[in-house]
Here is the input.
Amino acid sequence: MASGYPPPLEGSAEVKEGFLCPLCLKDLQSFYQLQDHYEEEHSGDNRQVGSQLKSLVQKAKKAKDKLLKRDGDERAETSYESFYYGGVDPYMWEPQELGATRSHLDLFKKHRAARIDHYVIEVNKRIIRLEKLTSFDRINMDGGKIRALEKSVVPWVSDQDVPFCPDCGGKFNLRNRRHHCRLCGSIMCGKCMEFVPLVLAYKLTSGTREALYVAGSPGHGAPPGGGGLTVQQPQASRRGSISSLSSVSSVLEEKDEDRIRCCHHCMDALLRHQRKLDEKDHVPDIVKFYERLRMCMDKVDEKAPEYIRMAESLNAGETTYNLETAGSLRLEVQKYYEHIDALSKKILTLGLKDEVQPHPKTLQLQRMVRYSATLFVQEKLLGLMSLPTKENYEELKEKKRYEQQHRQAALEAHKRRSEIDKSRPLLSANGDAPRPASGPRMTKAGSWLPSSEGTRSHGELDDPLLQQIDNIESFLRQARAAGRSDEVAMLEENLRQLQDEFDAQQTSRAIELSRRLAQEESLQRSQISYLQQRELESRAAARERASDFGEGKGVEEAGEREGDRSRDPDMSPELRPPQTIKSFPRLPGTSPPLQRDECTMAPPAGEAQNSGSTTLLNRFDEEDSIPVEEDPMNPFSKEIQREHHQATVARDEEYNPFEDEEDDVKETDERQDGALGRNPFEEDDDDDRGNPFKDTPDEMLPVASTNPFEDDDDDSAAMDELIEEELLLQQIDNIRAYMFDAKLNGRTDEVELLSQNLKELQCTLQEQKRKTH
Amino acid sequence: MNVVLAVKQYVSKMIESSGTGMKVLLMDKETTSIVSMVYTQSEILQKEVYLFERIDSQNRESMKHLKAICYLRPTKENVENLIQELRRPKYSVYFIYFSNVISKSEVKALAEADEQEVVAEVQEFYGDFIAVNPHLFSLNLHGVSRGRSWEPITLPRVTQGLTSVLLALKKCPMIRYQLSSDMAKRLAESVKQIITKEYELFDFRKTEVSPLLLILDRSDDAITPLLNQWTYQAMVHELLALNNNRIDLSRVPGINKDLKEVVLSAENDEFYANNLYLNFGEIGTNIKNLMEDFQKKKPKGQQKLESIADMKAFVDNYPQFKKMSGTVSKHVTVVGELSRLVSERLLMEVSEVEQELACQNDHSSAQQNVRRLLQNPRVAELDAVRLVMLYALRYERHSSNILPSLLEELQSSFLFCIICDLITPTDAVAITKQFFKGLKGVENVYTQHQPLLHDTLDQLIKGRLKDSQFPYLGPNSLRDRPQDIIVFIIGGATYEEALTVYNLNRTMPGVRIVLGGTTIHNTKSFLEEVTSSVGLGHGGDRTHGAGRPPTRR
Here is the structure.
């Protein structure tokens, strides 16, 4: 499906992309929508088309999956690829809706309402009565009056009607006297009687009372506010009054100044009501913590994707986002993780110090909350990629820009060539080469209905990819204007993919082009490089990244880079951007101190500048067969110049000047410290091994020390230690996180290993701190 | 038509509609297994469900800050327990979901118990079955039959299970059943009755071709559950017994204590998902690849990380490494144990003879092979029994069969003779004669056998299944080629049949088949099932000799 795709579409109309309905070309947002649409609109049409559509979708998805595979996992995925759908090819089986359900809620509510009404009315009645009973000044009123008042609240059942206690069945007589419930008026014996303390009564009625006050009926006597106090205060003085007003009943049946008699039914109802009130306002600690925990998690869910998007873009050297904002966002997200950890720890230990241990189920709940929080942190935190350092970012940006320029040039050349090609229908063998490589990408970018008619065409953008990019960019603008963030995100994703593809495509063209040009120049260049070779007896050459090309046999810059990247022939071009992302963040820790170093190092820099112009020119002479405009304000030019001066020749622009120094330092380090057996930058290291200079490191150092920038070198060595410190700190953090994780999962052997590492790292750190101070 | 997804959607819906906040899932014994088949703990934790409680558990504390999601089968005990719960609520709000139809009177009883107005939802969500694979469900019921008819209490349960599958998949099917089985007919009628009674529930959007429910009886094919299996899932079940996706490895010699019980779920184990239907040889290769990958990602053996580069690489790989390590150790253990059993019990040889018995028609060589294996002391009891049974089923009518002497041999060395006695030709399972299909192009001696189900389904799809053997219930019959088929096997399905259905799904365009059974058998559980079934109806079967159902209602 791939071959020959790009050329035929050149200059053709707009390409429609997305989930297009094959029959009416309507653009649907998703697979499912498309299918729904199809079922609705075209279900009458030929079924054949349907199956075709499905298989198409299937193919497209498979292709996408394949294309989007990342390099690191490639092996793993191919080995146990083959989709699993448990005998169910989900593309053949339509998306499933929720199975049948039936609600009984209405019926349930109907029955409950009948019951509840009754219940609620009863409770409310009692509370209103209680309110009335407590609204007068019980303490300073005489018993008879109280009795009359109480009787007015609820009619008392007459004594004759109840010969036996309805609860215990005991017969009433002189000793076993009748008592009336003040809330419902019923009769029971003394044993079955209960009391509502006034405090409780006030509490229960406070709601109604407030409501009554608001309603503006102040005739209800004493406010409830000081209820408890007023009850207590005059207690002592009142004895007399009771005895003076003694009636038979009030002597036998002591007066209730601070409580109200009631039957246990009423008491039950009131207590239940009270419990409900309590629960309504009571928020246990765990809930408070938990709410905060969830809030943090929500924040992370919100911020993390944004950050990852930024980080990806920054690591790819794009300028869409600001490095500082990303950095502060990262800090913020990390803060939330810390909060989550702290909060969940708090939840875990809630109540553990109490004398009465919480119920095992409570503990289990706390453990589970903690466990889920750690799962959350593990899953999300480990996915946070690091940012490039400032220095590195500049470099990445530079590279990206360079690539773009390069691509532009290549594109122009390609255009020119394709014009020529048009006149000569047969392509040269050379021209064929990049096609297969770029094939699959194209199909992914194009829709699976590439023949669809477009409405507008861009004369200047013959490349379908460029056209797509252009389209998406305009969509993006519109979506942004409309403030639809999810769409923006989606479009951005699309755009990035397209750009990646475009980059890859262009670079492959560039290789081809450069190869041609290289042939032309090879003779000339081989002479130059021969000269260089001799000068290269210094160590710079040793760190040439792509040693194959290091010989400088006339393969110029772009080719080198491409060659470097495509060393792994299996690697899909698609993977390149991710690869750069992966390889660059490794360096970040190293750069900033060097940058500082650079700034403070006035004399060498000055000297470097002296020779700057010549080297710069020289460099372009040597390096760039394609006339690419180099920004003279390039923040790197200084360093590059210095590097040139120092190492006499540096041919690879892509090659990081810092690596160089670092390698040196490492080598010295190696000698000083046997523990550091291996070079940290494995890749370079490997290349180094192939280099003859590697075998004579002892000779190299003398060379270095005769270098006019000897001081500088030492300086940078010190600086390098600083760099490492930063790196070390980072590593220590990481390892701590893993240790925590391993501990949780009870993998003791791993914990051991990790803690050992940690110790080692800390030792190294200490040592270095001592050295630097 | 994906039963796993169906249950999963139900459960997620329940959790979602309860809103945010800490939640507890209140279940009974059966719903616990239903939910555990589709959700892992960590998955469900992410949805804020932190506790899992049994409704009948006494040791529950009142936790008013939790919301309760009740997922219960509508049994009497559950309703009673729930009423008690609502009288004294332990949680703040209750969202009640029944896994099947509940009566109005029970709803009323619940409503009247809810004086504190804690119930926020009462619904029926029809996830009343165990979803094993997307196209395979089970009811986890053993001993469903007594003799040749239903165990009285199981028929309603099976009906409930089967109707809940129909409701969860939103299918209102036509029903066909196996005429030779009385149980199949009874079940078909019972299902039809529910569909008629709850016609409102079954009122789904009409599809062009009506779905089909085919009810079969295990006695139709007694061979399949007796064979040794060589695909991963089936083999694990045969040799280690899968129980709700869990296997018990505690008897494996020298087992790590973390691996005493492992979960094999295709939902969240990519390796298992990809290898479920592959044969033992392929799994071996894949395990090797998995190991190699793991070794690569593993932080340089267990040696010290010496340089910063090592450390960086380690830190980079760690998350992947961590993820893999669990999978690797699990599968390596399982496959290791499988291969240990295979060599210890000479399963390759046994299986070869089994396949020969099942698929070929050479009495003399079969007889020799069976005898030879019976005399080998390394062949396990179970395998010997199954060989004799297969021989009995296959050559029972052969003029010169040596069954009596084989039985004697078994009897002399094994206690399993009792089962053998039950399984011999007079038994119920033996009446069918058509289970042997001719040779196909033999590609693998260990997997020659195709279950009878394959032919039945093949004929069904091609429209050639005879109405005389598999009649429709009711006057209507299907004219078009069926599209959505639900097959239910009374007496239990097997993983070999699941594989068959899987392959049919993949090869037959436009056809979707879901397989179900009262349980999922391996040889051992099948023998137990037969024993329990025959043990009760023993006398009747004996006298009826040929296996006519002794009691037909």
Observations:
- The longest helix of chain B spans residues 308-344.
